[in-house]
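Forum: Protein Structure Q&A
Topic: Joint prediction for protein chains with partners

I've read a bunch of threads here and the consensus seems to be that you should model interacting components together rather than docking separate models afterwards. I'd like to see that in practice. Below is the full input, 980 residues plus whatever partners are listed. Could one of the regulars post the assembled result?
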Amino acid sequence: EGKTAAYLGQAVAILIYRDFARFRFAKEKLQFNDAVIRYGAVTGPLQRDPWGSSRFVRVGGPTPYDDDVFSCLKQGPVSPSYDKHEPVWPKPARDGDLGAQGMYHADTIQYELAHPPAEWLVLTRNYATQSGDTAALEPDNANGWYDADEQELHLVVPTQSPQEVAEGAAAILQRSRIGMKRLFLHPCFTVGYGSKDHCTMPYYGLLAAVYGDGRPVRLANDRFDQFQSGLKRHQFSMGYTVAVERRTGLLQSFRAEIVANGGGRANCSVALTLVGATSAQSVYYFPKNDVAATAIASRAIDSGAARGYGALETLTATELMMDEIAGELGLDAIEFRLRNVLKTGMRSAQGAVPLGTQRAETVLEQARDHALWTGRASRKQVYDAGHPGKYYGVGFACIQRRFGTGAEASLAKVELAPDGRIALSHSGTEIGTGTSSGQAIACARWLGRPADALDMAVTEWPDLPVETSGDPHSISQAEQDRLAKNPRWSPAYASASSASNSSYYFSHVTREAARVVYLHGLWPAALAMWGRDGREAAREVKPEDARWRDGALAVEGLELLPLARLAQEAHARGLVVGAAVHAFNRWQWAEADFVVDGASARAAVDALSVRYGGGAGAAKEALSTTPNRYQVLDRRTVSFPPTQNNNAMVGYNTVVGTLAEMVVDAASGKVTLLSHHTILECGNMLAPELVSSQIQGATATGIGLTLHEWLPLYEDGPGNGTWNFNRYHLPRGSDVAVWTQTADVLPPLSDREPPKGMAEVAGIPIMAAIVNGVAHAIGHRFRTLPVTPERILEVLA
Amino acid sequence: MILQTRPLTVTINGRRYGPIDVPEGLMMIDVLHEMLGLTGSRLGCGIGICHACVVIWDRDDQTSEEVQTCITGAGFFDGKRIRTVEGIARRNDKGEILALSPVQQAFLDQFSFQCGYCTPGFVNAATVLIERLKRAPVPRGQVEATVAAALEKHICRCTGYVRYYQAVRDLILATPGLTRDAA
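Posted by a regular:
Agreed with the consensus. Here's the joint model:
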């Protein structure tokens, strides 16, 4: 009877109480009491195939800029079958199918590494990172009530992915016996670090609400519950082999076997492991690579999209290896990195050319010249001599990581009131990173100042009908072409707040909506106002000649026009005063042609609706048919990014490097950070304060994962319900060099360079920087995290 | 099951509550949340570690201190005066906020918090610190160490602490009477 639990700590029941005090005292009796659950026969854990596995093989051309011989971009990743729960890769064959061809090249790479040319140094190392808790301070929770008379369900949930919850909740209720006519979803401002994305708690809350006898039900984890059931960080094991030519110090070949433990329930492990595998190349050019990655199923708690999303783990391993290779070659660690840095136009490990100007070289050069790096040897000598039993060290690491998921979609609506007030609605949700502030600021590019009113996490868009179907990551080109004929169709609807996607992707739709209002509302209003003076110059000016200055539109030689006056004019003339847009990005934006208020317009969006001012005539009024009087425009043509872009895996990158200065205490084994310095490139910042606060926060998380945070995977792990912050040490102020940390952000390449996602990347290089610094301090290279005092004492003993 | 109760009378943010019958053994945070409608104090860990739930206990000797409400029974507060985060800003008779406290304003101005879950605890800790320094100023050179010691127990996952600490440091240095020249 019954069945084997999928993982340790799996929930078995939801108990609903009508009285808080009784709930509280009952919980005290149930918590930590294993006897309340009656178990059946002992079966042992489930034995299952991995959640997924892929292999990324590339053999480059004669130079980094030439066409590849074989690559993921051209031929696709290699997929295995499974035998005895292990991946079985296709049989290699030079002239076989694409999988066989890929394995032929993989075999060639392996053979070469096993039988290298005499001038190669080949290093093989194993690395491991730990399971951990995202430790978002607001635990998972959900609130809801079901009105049986009206057949309406209300859900108040903190979630990173409101659209996913809306669709999931509707799907569950459609298949249930209870009737439901309407679902009201109220997504909240929250925090997650991945634990509230693809999370089951909203659905548990839904079920509790349905069984709540019409009463509102509140379901909330306490911290023990959160450790026991919240989504965890994947534990990674990584075997890397890297070849480098001794004479030139140039990297030749990279082979990796990556295994990520996804736990007992399928979440995002497959995608996360692929991101980890395809990020491992970091800021370097390798002529050849063979990276196999597997997400395994286990009896551990299910793992989710924890901050860093797989790349944190693989990049840390890469940066530890780069330092060790530099040491083996007798090269300065940054000089070695510079010799191998990926430059603009070079191909990635997937065979794609990363988009935009690559700036890792600049970050490395700044780090090389920083005083923390240049003076480290002499400072160590002086410090160690003056502090017996303490060892000084400086470490460095530099990484680049993609932002976005490769299938980003979002919606925004910008409306201008007659008095010039700006209202912004957006599908993105605020998770503490400043998304809402950033989106408000993004309006200023075209409207001269930030939005006055914000409505985030909007899931209902009656003014902008968009249809979607299929999986944007796996859809065929033919299918996409067929579906694109429907002017309402897009490959994806609305993205969660994740993958550092707000500053670039969310801002894009905000700006595109504001741009439509500017070009088809404010600009013609301005021309009309300037024209009233009878000035000939007004006929000559173009939109690109104008600049916003202190909230007024400025064109040389013409009257300054404050936003409020322009808005009033646009409303009076019945021009465009509101725009709702939907956009899709697969490492490039979908573009479409529309006719807006009689004028042809091309925009980097795939759906557009506009609202006209009150002075619009009957003809425009008749076209404005949505509930809020928008005209839905049929796109005339559309160009979606090709599906082959899915094989690129990575398109947009952000680069960051960190220097860390520390002391290792031989008596206690404790690592104390004295200072750290971060160098980041992220385009034009929407708000410098938000960027710096993300650097600071992400770096603290990286410090925690390097030195403190750790969860056992199995029987002693959080599934047993006994874990809390007394055992799981989150960094405190004294752990992070709170007064002495610094950061530089590279100036943007131009004033038009868009803002780039950076909230995840900033916390990654501090990890390898610390471990490399410990190696500098005590001469031992750790390859498993966290580096605890106990492990340091073992080494020093 | 019949729950035993004990009467609780407590002054919170200048307003007297009670006597109310509180089930014996209930922690103060549950009373604040469930019986008094004061939900600003956050339950973070439930075991007194993270300090998101602290309130300010105003003693009769004019000193004050932080108390973790997640591990302190409601009975402890009987007859006592406390402040929660709801009582930090200046309000009018209708309860409308007239002005944020200097600590709250400093946190806003310096982008100190992100998700905000730990913020009530930091507001209360910094408020207690500022009030202590009014009674006993510290040398200017010790301000950073004083801030670090006062806030060390408060856990934040988002911010890395920098903007919290800097905001409190800058507020102390800018407020006359909180510091003195080195002795």
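Residues 498 and 694 of chain A are 14 Å apart (CA to CA).
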